[in-house]
Design brief:
By secondary structure, this protein is α+β, with helices and mostly antiparallel strands. The chain is built from 12 helices and 11 strands. Strand 1, helix 7 and strand 2 form a beta-alpha-beta unit. It binds 2-oxoglutaric acid. This is Cupin-like domain-containing protein.
Length: about 325
């Protein structure tokens, strides 16, 4: 039997062809040895080559290619999910100015008629909830830090020792750190600055950070209590914010994009705040300036009021605070 060799050769390597030829010869010899008549062979139900293959060579290549693409896409999706969504990182971190540029415009009712901070003492949680907890009026509560260990114990060395402890528990949040104009790139750098600078007699500095480990927050919270005036049902995240630094320093004017309103207790030093209405309300509302003294707690919606701080001459300023819902 003659084989149509020329139809096999062009796309097949010589070695593969030889092996195939030997196999076919073997099959043909076997058929010969069975002494089957040509008419019998013709009647055998042998599928034509195009029917026998479930997929042609071209189709198979497509399937392999599509499978590879799907695998790559699935792998990438899983990677994006674990890296960015599950761990709460952002795909693209927007610069802070763009966050304020993309916020929805205010209708100015948030600041109309708000001319000053309201100072309060001895207020019930119910009254605070009704009148202030979720309003845009900035409030200072003057009697909510009685008995706090933080007032006596928080100073630069307290935090330097606190953060020399490596066991902070499980990480539960992003660790935010703001260097402002200090040039100190991390908390490690803050707590390894020289003594003169730490005592505020060297280069000025001001920094802020959030807690991000569960034990870290829990241990800090043993130095202060949940402010008594907060609504009974309000919950705080396990995140505290600490701002610390010397006179003449503070945060630049900005607006936040955090989840909730926050309180901030002035533990040491005097800090001046300037609240500015959003730019679209500048002709309708007023700027407000006030000072928070040690032992006082400020409640302000920093997502809506633009704000800027400045530590007044004297002691180091240390504040601790948290958001509540
Ligand atoms: O306390 C400060 O100096 C800045 C606070 C601040 O910017 C904030 O809470 O968003």
């Amino acid at each position: 039997m003659n084989l149509p060799q020329s139809s096999l050769r062009p796309k097949t390597s010589a070695k593969t062809y030889k092996v195939a030829e030997l196999k076919v010869m073997k099959i043909l010899n076997k058929i010969d040895s069975l002494k089957l008549s040509n008419s019998y062979i013709a009647r055998l139900d042998i599928p034509k080559s195009s029917e026998k293959k479930v997929f042609g060579r071209k189709t198979s290549s497509y399937i392999v290619l599509v499978s590879i693409i799907i695998s790559v896409l699935l792998f990438s999706a899983r990677w994006i999910y674990t890296e960015f969504l599950e761990s709460r990182h952002c795909l693209i971190e927007l610069p802070s100015f763009s966050k304020s540029a993309f916020r929805p415009p205010e209708d100015c009712s948030m600041c109309l008629g708000v001319d000053d901070v309201v100072r309060l003492a001895n207020i019930t949680a119910e009254e605070f909830e009704d009148k202030y907890a979720y309003s845009t009026t900035p409030v200072i509560v003057t009697d909510a830090t009685e008995g706090w260990r933080a007032l006596k114990e928080f100073d630069f060395n307290f935090f330097a020792n606190f953060y020399s402890e490596s066991k902070m528990g499980k990480q539960i949040n992003d660790c935010f750190y703001f260097a402002y104009k200090s040039g100190l790139k991390s908390l490690q750098e803050v707590f390894s600055m020289d003594e003169a600078r730490a005592n505020l007699s060297g280069q000025p500095w001001y920094v802020g950070w959030s807690t991000c480990y569960d034990d870290e927050t829990r241990r800090l919270r043993s130095y202060y209590n949940r402010p008594y005036f907060l609504p009974k049902t309000a919950e705080s995240d396990m995140v505290d914010w600490i701002f610390m630094g010397g006179p003449g320093q503070g945060a630049h004017m900005h607006v936040d994009s955090v989840k909730h309103i926050s309180w901030q207790a002035q533990v040491r030093g005097h800090k001046q705040w300037q609240l500015a209405p959003p730019p679209e309300c500048l002709y309708h509302c007023r700027w407000i300036t006030f000072t928070v003294a040690p032992g006082e707690i400020l409640v302000v919606d920093t997502n809506r009021w633009y704000h800027k701080t400045n530590v007044l001459p004297g002691d180091i300023s240390i504040t601790i605070g948290a958001e509540y819902d």
